[in-house]
Amino acid sequence: MVIDDDILLMQEAMLLAQQGEGKVNPNPLVGALIVKDDEIVAHGYHECYGDLHAERNAFKYAEEHGIDCEGCTMYVTLEPCCHHGHQPPCTDAIIEHKIKRVVVGLLDPNPLVAGHGLELLREAGIEVDVLDEESPLAKQLKMQNRVFRKYITTGMPWVTAKWAMTLDGKIATATGDSRWVSCEKSRERVHLVRKNNMAILCGIGTVLADNPMLNVRLSEEMLQKLGIKEHEVRHPLRIVADRRARIPMESLLVQTCREIPTVVAYADGADEEKLQMLRDAGVVLWNCNTLKELIQRAGAEKIDSILLESGGTLSEALLEENLVDEVMAFVAPKIVGGKTAKTPVEGEGCTLMAEAIELTDKLIEPIGDDVLISGIVKPHPNPLQ
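RESULT FIELD:
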């Protein structure tokens, strides 16, 4: 049975798990604690894709500090794995170290695990307790691993649409000027979000208008806070939705594609000569005739998360096709006006307010002079299906 002390310790494990954000994709964020006589004696988290899982990192810590784990309780945010991947099963390690009780935050939705890990532990005589999946903490753990949970069950990446807009809903002035809508603190947050996603997606219109780099640029202060060096920063894959392969060869994305991998997603009928020029330059080409094909291709390439940084046309198209999972809107206390000034979501829009796309699990956070409004996109009826 899960008691109040278990909840407090699981919260500690969840904080540990968060330290792996942006480094373990497409694996889940997992934290683990080993407790003896009501005291945390060892801890670990999944630190990097392909490396030790949280449980084995906790046992490594225990061994390095001469701690005997026999009879201890282990807290782990996600069901221990029971299959061989880059690492051997964590259930084996738990049994070998003679853990007496295991408290689990969530069942692993991975079909290779999905309750089998708990069965093996119970068969070995280990007491196993799992949080009520409707409890507040379990819901927080689901949110923490929302990217993994979608990717492992559907093969599709989690798509987050991000934009910065003025108080009157403009992402640029009528002349196209957009530097800068949001404040410096908001822009720094965006670079952290980029770091934690495996890919950034934009449309060809954004490339032609802004010639962006779409890389991660962190201040020295932020690098120190994260405990990493500039050369250790992982830049996401850059994807351009470009049906006719119009991307200029002199664009920053093409010019830097050998340093930061870049994909151009084109459709049938694109100019073959231009496609060959892009190949020769080092650009990766995906033939995708629909946006759904593009998102599915990303999933097939083991990309579990995409940050959408585009103009209103591509954002509207992805939202219309139910391909956006989350929205992050940075709202600046500015008013620019202009009937023709661009908005974050264009197209025809809704006829009735009742048809508006809604967000759940909403968060409102002040960032510098701005306000960040984020939430999960509530699925809506799709007239295209």
